[in-house]
Each structure stands twice: as structure tokens, then as C-alpha cells.
């Protein structure tokens, strides 16, 4: 990709008589020998016809073909900008990474992304309110007097987020004359949850037909998410079952599992781990103290061997090894911690003498400066965005203030996305879906999605429209060169099939 001369900046999106967003920027770029318009701009959201928030996005559009597919891309959190997919996997430029899940030294080098999805779809990277350059609009009083500021958390909720993204997508299609384009959605992590629910909401509430939904490392149901993070108590079963196969794969990767001989094929390791998780281990978790002592000890020994941990440690954990202790204990004798987001990546344990490690995850926190520098360079230096706003890669304020808009009582959990996803697939018999995970991701384990898909009771026709395909690597498996290439090739086939009639 190479930047052309900056073109005239587009007119600000109309926000009504009382507000105009910052001026955006546009330039012509070349990717794989083809010119694309790269446009960064703010779109104003409204409530009761009053401007309430500015959504920032970057669109890459090729030529004048109004029928070309367009894919709206989100990341997760909630509170994450779209930069991870933008400069990590999907956009025309990406950060030059070693290719094994580790990150380069800052500042990063940008290279043309030979695996960009631009080959088969236009792209719109969307930053929800509070992320990237997207912000709430502060209210102003009359006669120059400031009124009470707008609620800074007004869009930080499950249903409010879906409504905002639906409004953005509909407005973007209208303002760009793209209602004849096949619409695809792609989201990672909480973005995958967002896409799962939008598969229904966009069609049902906004009249926007979906050609395809792409869920990347999705968190479909929060009740079973990542033991040690949001779930996995002494009285639960599902979270422990879901994460165990990934733990076993991590132990095998680092040569610590005692259950397999060196060189055992990954497929064999995975199959054995899944069978144990849903078999003897699930029975153990369900029966508790009612299980025969000898049978209980046999399960403990097998579990310890699979995980490559000391039997005394697994016994002390009562067979429920949380993610955080596992990431420290597996390679404790080497003074290393493995990543939650990519269990193949390690870093030195800075506090080996402490019982609790409270630092950031090496596969998430450590990549922050790399992605922040990469996306700022593209937006400010190459596309030409001129703003003094800080680009918020990952805003923890959003996470801390996120609400369940559907809750009727205080203890009602955030609703899952699986029911809306199933319903959305039923609404449109032409909608296709692609769900994928990295097999070394301890944060949103691949087996949780596999289990949910097996429980959806899909009819044969709907099941044929759903593809579940996992790759080697972690939460951001596209940091692995081979996985990124295979992923792009799979999505290219998926888009082609979805628009073929």
C-alpha cells in the first residue's frame, strides 16, 4: 500500500444545526496495484433528532462499483477500538510482526498487507463511542452558558451499543449510496458478541439484510467465559469444561503434558482433551463429594498429567485450576508466565516470589504500544487526520461502566448472543456465518463455541450455512503468519459463497 497525494477533505457529516463534527480526511492509496479511496471521518449519532455522539470510522472503498460487498469491522472489549483488526489482519497495511504470535519492538514497521480483505470486499473500520477518536458530544446551554454535561456513559450498554452500531451502518449505507451492496459484519471478542446479536437486530429493527456474519474469537455467552475472569466458581461446571482443552494444548505446546509422547499430533491431543473434558472431568465436576474416592483420585491424576502440573497442586485446587494460576504455574520453574490471550507466548515473571500476579497479560498489554503507534501513523501521517484527540486503543473506562440494558433486576446477567444469532440466521435463509477461534486462546476458548454450536439444534439447511473453523494461535491468531494467510483464504471463499446466487 502506498499513500497518494491527499485529496480534498470531505465535508463534515451533518449533525444538525447545533453541531458539526471534526473535519475528516481522505486520500487515495494503492494496494496490490489497485487504487482505493481511504476516508477517515466522524458520523454524528442522534437521539430525538439531537446530536449525542461522534462515531469515527475509516473506510477503504475501491472504484465506483455500488454492488461490491462492504464489511463493517469491529473489535471488542467492550472498550476496544477497531485498530487490532485494522492494522493487524484485515486492512491494506499491517504491522510487521515476527509471525509466531509475538510482537516486534516499538516503533513498529508498517508493510503492505498481502492478506488484506480488500481483494474481495470494501472495508469500514468502526470505533464505538469511547474508543479510538469516537466521543460523546457535550451539551451546551443557551446564551453561552454551559448546561449539565451529557452522560459520558450514555452508550456504554449492551442494547445502546447495538442501537448505535445499527444507526451508524444504516447511515453509512445511505450517505455512500451502498444499499445495493451485500453487507457483511466482522467482529472480534466482544465484537463477535456484537456481530452475533446484530445478525438479528440489524435485520429485525433496521431492515438491513446481512449477507454474512464473521465472528472472530467471540464471547458468545458470558456465563461460561474464561475461568478466572468472569466465571468458574466452585459450583459451576461449564466454564471449567470449556477452557480445559486449551490448557491441555498449552501444556503440550510447552512440552509439559505428561499424557502424550513427544511428537504426538495436535489433532490427537485435542481430541483426547475434549473427550476427557466432556467425559470423566464433567462427571467429576458434577458429582463432587458423591464420587467414589478411588475414581476421584484417578480423575485427578489424569488431569494433572494432561495439564503438566504437580498432582499436589491440582489436588489443592480441588481439580479446578483457574486460568491465572495456570499461566504462572506451568513454567514456574523457568521463571516464566504464559499468555492468557496466546498461551504459546511467554514472558519473564516479574514477581516470582508473590502468590498473586496482578500485572497485565503479556499478550494483550504488551502489544498496546505497537498497535497504538501503528494506527496513529496510518491515520495521522498517511490518511491525514488532523486532530489533537488521543486515539484510545483500549479504554478501560468503557469496560468498567458497561451495563446490561436488558436487566430487570440487579442480578440478571448480560444476555448471551447465541439466541439472537440463531434467530437472525432463521430470519434470512440466505445469511451465512463464519465463527473462528485461535486454539491457544485462554480468554475466549474455542471449545465454548464448539459446545454452543452443538447445542443450537440447527436444522440441516441452517447448519449448512454455518462454518466453524479454528486456527493455530491465540485470541489474535492472525499474528501467526500461516494462520493469517489461511484465515484470509477461508474468508475469501466464505464471501464468494455468500454472494453467489
Automatic annotation (TrEMBL):
GO terms for molecular function: serine-type carboxypeptidase activity. One of its GO terms (biological process) is proteolysis. Residues 1-30 are annotated as: Disordered. Keywords: Carboxypeptidase, Glycoprotein, Hydrolase, Protease, Signal. Pfam families: Peptidase_S10. It comes from the Bacteria. PANTHER family: RETINOID-INDUCIBLE SERINE CARBOXYPEPTIDASE, SERINE PROTEASE FAMILY S10 SERINE CARBOXYPEPTIDASE. This is Carboxypeptidase C (Cathepsin A).
Amino acid at each position: 500500500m502506498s499513500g497518494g497525494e491527499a485529496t480534498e477533505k470531505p465535508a463534515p457529516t451533518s449533525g444538525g444545526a447545533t453541531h458539526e463534527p471534526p473535519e475528516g480526511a481522505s486520500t487515495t492509496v494503492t494496494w496490490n496495484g489497485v487504487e482505493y479511496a481511504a476516508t477517515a471521518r466522524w458520523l454524528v449519532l442522534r437521539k430525538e433528532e439531537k446530536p449525542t455522539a461522534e462515531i469515527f470510522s475509516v473506510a477503504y472503498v475501491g472504484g465506483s462499483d455500488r454492488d461490491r460487498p462492504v464489511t463493517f469491522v469491529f473489535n471488542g472489549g467492550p472498550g476496544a477500538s477497531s485498530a487490532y483488526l485494522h492494522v493487524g489482519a484485515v486492512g491494506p497495511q499491517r504491522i510487521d510482526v515476527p509471525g509466531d504470535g509475538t510482537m516486534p519492538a516499538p516503533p513498529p514497521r508498517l508493510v503492505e498487507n498481502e492478506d488484506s480483505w480488500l481483494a474481495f470486499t470494501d472495508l469500514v473500520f468502526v470505533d464505538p463511542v469511547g474508543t479510538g477518536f469516537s466521543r460523546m458530544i457535550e451539551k451546551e446551554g443557551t446564551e453561552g452558558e454551559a448546561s449539565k454535561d451529557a452522560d459520558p456513559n450514555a452508550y456504554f450498554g449492551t442494547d445502546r451499543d447495538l442501537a448505535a452500531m445499527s444507526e451508524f451502518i444504516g447511515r453509512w449505507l445511505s450517505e455512500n449510496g451502498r444499499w445495493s451492496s451485500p453487507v457483511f459484519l466482522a467482529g472480534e471478542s466482544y465484537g463477535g458478541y456484537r456481530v452475533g446479536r446484530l445478525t438479528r437486530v440489524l435485520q429485525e429493527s433496521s431492515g438491513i439484510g446481512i449477507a454474512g456474519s464473521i465472528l472472530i474469537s467471540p464471547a458468545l455467552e458470558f456465563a461460561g467465559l474464561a475461568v478466572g475472569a468472569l466465571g468458574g466458581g466452585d459450583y459451576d461446571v461449564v466454564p471449567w469444561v470449556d477452557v480445559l482443552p486449551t490448557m491441555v494444548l498449552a501444556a503440550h505446546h510447552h512440552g509439559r503434558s505428561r499424557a502424550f509422547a513427544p511428537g504426538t499430533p495436535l489433532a490427537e491431543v485435542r481430541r483426547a482433551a475434549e473427550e476427557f473434558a466432556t467425559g470423566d472431568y464433567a462427571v467429576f465436576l458434577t458429582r463432587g463429594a458423591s464420587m467414589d474416592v478411588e475414581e476421584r483420585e484417578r480423575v485427578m491424576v489424569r488431569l494433572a498429567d494432561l495439564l503438566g502440573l504437580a498432582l499436589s497442586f491440582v489436588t489443592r485446587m480441588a481439580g479446578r485450576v483457574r486460568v491465572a494460576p495456570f499461566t504462572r504455574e506451568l513454567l514456574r520453574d523457568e521463571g516464566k508466565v504464559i499468555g492468557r490471550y496466546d498461551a504459546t507466548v511467554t514472558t519473564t515473571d516479574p514477581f516470582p516470589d508473590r502468590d498473586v500476579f496482578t500485572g497485565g497479560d503479556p499478550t494483550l498489554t504488551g502489544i498496546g504500544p505497537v498497535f497504538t503507534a501503528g494506527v496513529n501513523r496510518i491515520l495521522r501521517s498517511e490518511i491525514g487526520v488532523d486532530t489533537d484527540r488521543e486515539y484510545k486503543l483500549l479504554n478501560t473506562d468503557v469496560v468498567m461502566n458497561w451495563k446490561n440494558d436488558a436487566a430487570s433486576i440487579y442480578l440478571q446477567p448480560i444476555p448471551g448472543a447465541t439466541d439472537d444469532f440463531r434467530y437472525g440466521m432463521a430470519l434470512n435463509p440466505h445469511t451465512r456465518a463464519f465463527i473462528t477461534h485461535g486454539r491457544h486462546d485462554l480468554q475466549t476458548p474455542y471449545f465454548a463455541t464448539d459446545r454452543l454450536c452443538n447445542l443450537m439444534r440447527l436444522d440441516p439447511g441452517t447448519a449448512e450455512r454455518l462454518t466453524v473453523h479454528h486456527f493455530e494461535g491465540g485470541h489474535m491468531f492472525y499474528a501467526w503468519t500461516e494462520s493469517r494467510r489461511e484465515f484470509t483464504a477461508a474468508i475469501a471463499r466464505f464471501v464468494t459463497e455468500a454472494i453467489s446466487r
